[in-house]
Amino acid sequence: MTVPISAYLMLSVALLVLGMLGVIRRRNPLLLLLSIELMLNAGNVALIGFSRQWDDPAGQVFALVVMVVAAAEVVIGLGLTVAVFRSRMNLDVDEMSSMKG
Amino acid sequence: MAEQVTFAIAAIGALGFGIGVVFFRDAFRAAVSLIGTLLSVALLFIVLMAPFVAALQVIVYAGAIVVMFLFVIAYLGDRPIVAGTDRMDAVQPVAWIALAGVAAFGAITVLASTIGPEYTASDTDVGSPASIGNAFLNQHIIAFEVTSLIMLIAAVGAVILAKRAVMLEGGR
Amino acid sequence: MATTLAWIILLLPLLGGIALASWPGEPPRAVTRLIGIGSIATAFVLALAIFFTMLGNAPSDRTFTSNLYEWISIGGTSLDLSILVDPLSLMMVLIITGVGMLIHVFSAEYMEHDRDYRRFFAEMNLFVFSMLLLVLAGNFFFLIVGWAFVGLASYLLIGFWYERPSAVAAAKKAFVMNVIGDVGLVLAAFLIMRELGTLDYQQAFARAGDLGQNSGTALAVCLLLFVGAAAKSAQIPLHTWLPDAMEGPTPVSALIHAATMVTAGVYLIVRCHAIFQMSELAGDIVAVIGAITLLMAATVALQQVDIKRVLAWSTVSQIGYMIMGAGLGAYSAAMFHLLMHAFFKAGLFLAAGIVIHALHDEQSLNHMGNLRKYLRVAYFGMGMGCLAIAGFPGFDAFFSKDDILATSLAAGPVGVFCWVVGVIGAFITAVYMFRLLFRAFWGPDPKGGYAHAPHASGLWMAVPVVILGILSVVAGWIQVPFGWTGITDWLAPVLADVKNPLEPTHAGEWLTIGFSTAAALGGIALAWWLFAADPERRIRLANIARGPRQLMDNAYDFDRAYDDLFVEPGRELGTVLLDDVEPAGPKGLITGTTAVIRDTARVISASENGLVRTYAFGIVAGLALAGVVLAIVVAGAS
To answer: What is the pLDDT of residues C334-375, one digit of tens each?
Structure first.
């Protein structure tokens, strides 16, 4: 008895919505980044699920690519957060709005 | 049956820790909660016969990325958000509705669409490192190279950001 | 052989002008003189060579054409860079190079104190080249090119002293007036091209009959050609630029605005006589306009106090005689008068130049008097010129003007009208020219005397004046009534196709000689009585006929009429366009466009609020919307 693939997809949707909720709710840039990780993981679950379904390694390959992107994104995101924190001493994405139109 | 039980535990764990990520006020606790989610997802990967990705999930995500988060959180300390009105307050209800919409959209899509054949319970080696390596180098070489490029860019960017940050503080 | 020389004649002034213009820095004056005068003098010698070659040929064998290359060939017709050397164009070439050479020599001394010595000679050479191109051109196209070029050279030389606002204004005026003429000429060329299918002179004139005798087309072509001629030759109503053109240096006035360029209109009519033969009405119109111009300009000249303006109006008047003759069909007489006029008017201008030079740019007759004591050469040149232009028996205009008048008498009622006007004009001419002579050279010194004693001219200036003075008396003998007809014979090959050549009758000759001699002598006597016998008399008579004299002084208010008719409405239109239309129209369009873009950008930029989370919300909302759409589609499909 196997778990239907739609169950994985539902889980993926749930995690994604959770991540979105985090992105919209949290004002701390660190938690924003954590929420993004959540969303990326949701994607990975779906990818791996499809890989299993079609018996194809491509899904896993892209899951790995997503991980690399996530790592890179975290590096830059954290670097920016630290840089902004150093110059502003305040952790609030709402205050990082000097690029507004 | 064991698979379903494992899936249930992992799914509940992932969602539960995920809720923690989103709702913990404390950044440290949120980060630790994320580790829980990541480990649960790794468990799911094992269930899905992707041991290599599961291993990397644990090593890279839980081991490296979250640790980096923890370092930064420790470095910045626990800073409360400055009191003041949330400028998103005005749209907050709309945001909830939109989120509910997305959730419904996802659920409807998953439930209503024909997903295709269910996988068989039989063993498979698509998750083995050899299979993934083959796929990477034979079919997805461009993705592979782009990956390396992204990492290079990220490394250079991190160095520049760090240098700027140091210079802002008057260092060399 | 003749055409090769003609090409060289054409090129020499051009090369001279280019050499002077492109000379690095200001060349030594001797070099400027050598190039500037040398090129014209060489051209004159070559023109003489052609002349004597032609004399050696039979009259029927005196027309040469030369085609340098086919410039445009399209639809069965071609435009060639070609020249036509025949007795008519050669006569013009001789005038241009000969008189031009004398005036260049004169300028060598006259312009000596000017810092733009080189520029002066470069522009003069350019003018000579343009004028040669005009007369040598073998088709209407290059006629127009030369026509426009002389306008340019005239513009440059009128505005030679560009620091003077009046000179710049005069140059502009001349240019605009000339462009009106250019437009007429170009339209005429279009019509000729359409009706006759060619712009080549010889082909067009050979086919001129296709226009149809007295047809509307022929009339239109003639009148359009005459618009060009009138603008260039300062005929009513396009004459107002010429008196103002006296702002240029005096040699320029002598060469361009007396001897050569302003007679181009006469040349054009004579050249196109085959077309003018097609429309008698056009010829009559031309003649009447010439007659009115000669009378009007002569009366205006009576009132001028500026020595050069007297001569300018006199030029307008004399060209009126030529145009009148050419319109009536007295082509050889008109050309005869053109030649004589080139001599005596150039002489008069150069003599006036000596006076102006000696008096340090003083041009007003009120500050002159008794100059014969100081300036003997100028007195000789001016005296000979005045006798010549007044038609004193034995002098140039006595023969040439009388030739026109006597021929007019043979031209029907219009001719008789012209004859009467011409005789009256001759009388007035004698009065105003001798007024000039008596007021400047006779009588006492001006009030307060001369600041500096007028200094006599040097050889460079004296020689041309003396030569032209002598020509004023001898040149007329080339064509003598009842004697010989040098000019008519010379032009006979060109005018061979005139159907009913006008021949003065014996009675007409005698009548004309009698009346014009009486007019000349009477005019001189009146001028003597008014201005010389008793210098105080003109002051005592100053109050007589104030109104008409004021009118003449203002040159019959043509300038003011043009101001009211064209300049002021144009200026008002410009003001209206600038103040009302422009802010609302083009400018409004532009500012409106920018305002719309700016406002839109402001609205859109409000969404760029810098809040990362709103962007995220935007993505989520978009996704939700896409979901709604998808749900509707799915629901609709099932």
So the answer is: 889 898 888 888 988 898 888 888 888 888 878 887 788 888
Quickly state the pLDDT bin for A39 (edges 50, 70, 90): very high
Which residues 576-635 of C are in CB contact (within 8 Å) with B?
611, 613-614, 617, 620-621, 623-624, 626-628, 630-631, 634
CATH of the domain at A15: 1.10.287.3510
Yes or no: say if C153 and C52 are a contact pair by the CB < 8 Å rule: no
pLDDT band (50, 70, 90) for residue A44: very high
CB C90 within 8 A of CB C339: no
pLDDT at residue A15 in the model: 92
Residue with tokens 């050979």: C206
Cβ distance A70 to B65 less than 8 Å, yes or no, reads yes
B86 pLDDT more than 80 = no
Distance CA C262, CA C322 (A): 11
d(CA A44, CA A31): 20
For residue C609, give how far its alpha carbon lies from the nearest alpha carbon of chain B (Å): 11
Q: Determine the Cα–Cα distance for residues C388 and A63; give it in Å rounded to an integer.
A: 113
Does residue A94 sit within a domain?
no
Task: Check residues C444 and C103 and name the one with the higher pLDDT.
Answer: C103
Which residue range is the domain that position A69 belongs to?
A: 5-89
Q: Mind telling me how many Å the CA of C584 is from chain B's nearest CA?
A: 43
Distance CA C71, CA C232 (A): 27
Q: What is the ipTM of this complex?
A: 0.88
Residues from chain B contacting residue C613 (CB–CB below 8 Å): 88
Q: Is the pLDDT of residue C23 over 60?
A: yes
Per-residue pLDDT at B169? 65
Give DSSP secondary structure letters for C476-514. GGGB-TTS-BHHHHHHTTGGGG-SS-----HHHHHHHHH
Residues C394 and C311 sit within 8 Å (Cβ to Cβ): no
Report pLDDT for B82.
57
Residue spans per domain, chain B: 1-79
Question: What tens digit of pLDDT does each residue of C138-178 get?
Answer: 888 889 999 999 999 999 988 888 888 888 988 998 898 88
Note whether A14 contacts B168, CB cutoff 8 Å.
no
Q: Quick check: C611 and A27 CB within 8 A? A: no
DSSP, residue by residue, C276-296:
HTT-HHHHHHHHHHHHHHHHH
> Please, what sign has the CA dihedral across residues C226, C231, C233, C239?
positive
Residue C89 near residue C136, CB atoms below 8 Å: yes
Angle at B29 between CA B28 and CA B33, to 5 degrees: 120
Find chain C residues with C-beta within 8 A of B109's C-beta: 627, 630
For residue C356, give the DSSP letter: H
Neighbours of B24 (CB within 10 A): 18
Looking at residue C322, its amino acid is M
User: How far is it, in rounded angstroms, from Cα C237 to Cα C165?
Assistant: 25
Distances (CA, A) of B64 to A35, A71, B51, C289: 17, 9, 18, 106
Q: What is the CATH number of domain B1-79?
A: 1.20.120.1200
A98 is a domain residue:
no
Look over chain C and give the mean of its residue pLDDT values, rounded to a whole number.
86
* Per-residue burial over C443-458, b = 16 or more CB atoms within 10 Å of its CB, e = otherwise: beebeeebeeebeebe
**Rounded Cα gap, residues C346 and C105, in angstroms:** 13
Helix (H), strand (E) counts: chain B: 7, 0
C233: phi then psi, degrees, rounded to nearest 5? -100, 15
Question: Considering chain A, what is the average pLDDT of its residues?
Answer: 85
**Gyration radius (Cα) of chain B, Å:** 21
- pLDDT, tens only, C273-316: 888 888 888 888 989 999 999 889 888 888 888 888 888 899 99
